[in-house]
Amino acid sequence: MATRFFTQQKLTWLIIGLIFAVGVDVGWRLRRSGSDSQVIPPAEAKPVQTPEDLARLGKAFAAIAQAVIPAVVNINTTTIIPGHSTFDDPFFRDFFGGSSPFGDFFNEPERRSTSLGSGVIVSPDGYVITNNHVIQGGSEIKVSLADKREFKAQPIGTDPTTDVGVIKIDGRNLPTSNWGNSDNLAVGEWVVAIGSPFGLNQTVTAGIVSAKGRTDVGISGYEDFIQTDAAINPGNSGGALVDVGGRLVGINTAIFSKSGGYQGIGFAIPSNIAKSVMDELIRHGEVVRGWIGIIVNPVTEDTARRLGMSKAEGVVVTTLYRNSPAHRAGFLPYDVILEINRQKVENPGHLRNIVVQTKGGETLKFKIWRRGRQIEAEVKTIPKPKIANGQPAPGI
To answer: How confident is residue 198, by pLDDT bands cut at 50, 70 and 90?
Structure first.
């Protein structure tokens, strides 16, 4: 027992000695290391934005608004719906001898419907760009400027396909908005929307570019929208979307909403498209676009599997118009268009945007998937024809 106790006691003191020695050595090494290097104190925490930064940002937005507001107008469109009488029908006219036995009881009087929207003055002599749906069918168009002046406007032309409309007021040396290059916009960049939501003239909201190149939204026939979270509400249509330099980069056109009010998603026609359409409307009264005579749908996983494709890509031809350029070039239903002019076709909107820009007369090169193999085809576009009611033919 005495021997065992002595042995355990020696072992305990030995372990304590080793721990002490290791501690002294580590301490000496740390002290030596610390003397050879400079201890860097932690950086002082700074706020991401100082009050001065916020003040500068606020002044920047104020400067943008001050520069652009004079060129943004309120548009009041009145549509006159003629009155009529039930007895104008030939049957009643013959039966009652051309007059109503009940006086004006069955007569419906003339009605006047008004709508509000916005527009942007883009030339000193009074050309104003807006949306087609703001002025379409208008019998009377009144334009109100920020300085309270009012003008009667004359329609110059509309393009339902892009939802662009152009009107003209009789003015001189009017304030204008400078065109910007919408292709230079980047996602995340600040933008400012100016218009007359709910008739509240020259309302300014700010946000960022949420996305570019939005297609297949279901708003118009030709879609390549700028998406923004700058608040856009009914009445903002046709107003200005400007960049931080105050340059016009878009024409506000629609919102994505289940309630009819602002929900954080608005769309604007890029300025490069809007200006091109406006110039054609002023020169020719209409816009000419290319057409090859097909209707297409996206390729789903199920469609790709049934057509023997290894993956879902391109767009599939679902309708082919007889004697159209595509039909004459040998296209067949269920052909899958993979590329056009060596560009991969992402979706129907992408294909449509390439074709319509040709304006007719340009030859396009296609890569197609057909019955298990890839083939190539060339199609010469034609100006998009009109159907019986004067509307553009459907399809691409």
So the answer is: confident
Side-chain-facing half-sphere of 108: CA atoms under 13 Å? 10
Provide CB contacts within 8 A for 370, sequence distance 6+: 332, 334, 335, 336
**What is the number of residues in the chain?**
396
CA distance 351 to 298: 11
* One domain for residues 267 and 327: no
Whether residue 361 sits in one domain with residue 314:
yes
Burial of 382 per CB tally in 10 Å (0-12, 13-18, 19+): middle
* Helix residue spans in 37-153 (DSSP H): 51-68, 90-95, 132-135
In angstroms, the CA 128 to CA 151 distance is 12
Assess whether 211 and 255 both reside in one domain.
yes
Element counts in the chain: helices (H) and strands (E): 8, 22
Strand, helix or coil for residue 189: coil
- Which CATH number belongs to the domain containing residue 340 in this structure? 2.30.42.10
User: What's the pTM value of the predicted model, to 2 decimals?
Assistant: 0.73
pLDDT digits (tens, 9 = 90+) for 112-144: 667 789 999 999 999 999 999 999 888 899 999
**Active-site positions?**
133, 163, 237
Question: DSSP string covering 6-40, please?
Answer: HHHHHHHHHHHHHHHHHHHHHHHHHHHHHHHSPPP
Q: What's the CATH number where 99 sits?
A: 2.40.10.10
Identify whether residues 81 and 112 lie together within a single domain.
Answer: yes
Q: Which amino acid is at 304?
A: A
Does 9 map to a domain? no
- What confidence tens digit (pLDDT) does each residue in 5-48 have? 344 555 455 445 545 554 545 455 545 555 444 444 555 555 56
Residue 85: which domain range? 65-169
User: Which 3 state secondary structure label does DSSP give 233?
Assistant: coil
Final residue belonging to a domain, choices 229, 260, 284: 284
Mean pLDDT of the chain: 83
Which of 284, 316, 332 is the C-terminal boundary of a domain? 284
| Number of domains composing the chain | 3
